From TrEMBL:
This is Transcriptional regulator, LacI family. InterPro entries: HTH_LacI, Lambda_DNA-bd_dom_sf, Peripla_BP_I, SBP_2_dom. The lineage of its organism: Bacteria, Bacillati, Bacillota, Clostridia, Christensenellales. The chain crosses the membrane at residues 21-42. The keyword Membrane applies.
Amino acid sequence: MLFSLFSKAVDRKRAKHYHKIIYYVLVHIKIVSGFGAIMATIKQISELSGVSRGTVDRVLNGRGHVSPEKERLVRSIAEQVGYTPNRAGKALAARKKSYIIGVLLASEGNPFFGEVIRGVHEAERELHDYGVKVVLRTQKGYDVAAQLAAMDEMGEDTNALILNPINDPAVAEKINALSDRGVQMYTLNTDIEDCRRLCYIGSDYFEGGRIACGMLGLLTGGVANVGILTGSVHILGHKQRINGFLDVMYKKYPKFRFLSIMETEDDDMIGFESTRRMLTEYPEIDTIFLAAAGVYGVCRAVQSFLPERRLHIVSFDHIPQTEELMRAGLIQATICQQPFAQGYEAVKLAFNSLMNGMPPAEQQFIVKNDIRILENL
């Protein structure tokens, strides 16, 4: 395979000459990494392939701008000679640049973000040898002015900024302004419309809403009086979940009656009060789609105001409060969105982009929606 790839890249005369070199190196010398052996280098791969060092470097570091034929040739030779990246060299280059990655989360009071933050810290720990510093800042609630002020402040000292944005035009404009100043911008856990962020890292919220409706359809036999508790209408992901839920409901469950929607602001106290109002205004509600946080407050309100009735409730995320409520029989299913992976991958993507000088290959990094019931908690 290696020889055939090579033959397509150069003329027959040169191919014949280099075939001898490749055969000699691979069979008689066999460049491998290990104690007492020779470590394959970019220079050696360049010499073996007849491709410039710059091209080899772009292929091995994923920087693009290389023809598919040359990329296949370089990767085949690199595999044959056992090439491994020079981690120490990359670490030295990174230290000279001192990358600072900012993470801004509206996470205070929302236990879901504990795992997101753990993922952020794990990525930072793994990138320690590269001289990466992660600056984490948290806020409570969805105050546009507070988020804009924090973005301004963090944008002064960071090479990349990762945030879970409020879906507001002013926030989108700020993302664009920071991007214009050279700060790489990423959205985490929820996205935002009409901006130039490089990549969104999180779940498919529309799909999550569809899954939730399907679960409630199974639990109720397709007949239900539905109330929806969402976090905030200013969070794009929460809106997408509701749209996904309604999409399935209107197509598949004609006997679902959608009666009310209220916000929890991802807060248990507000969730309790919103649920109390909803159940007072619509006492016939027997099914609740809990599209965001505030789960404990919502379920406490159900217990307090409808103690004799058993409602069908589907929520999101596997946090200690949700598990407790599932074991108590208040929640029948919850949909998880891999919070650790979200935090971890966001920092890794930002670092790789800074190192390579190229934006991520994809504009979205979607984590899997995972259904949990009592039996697989």
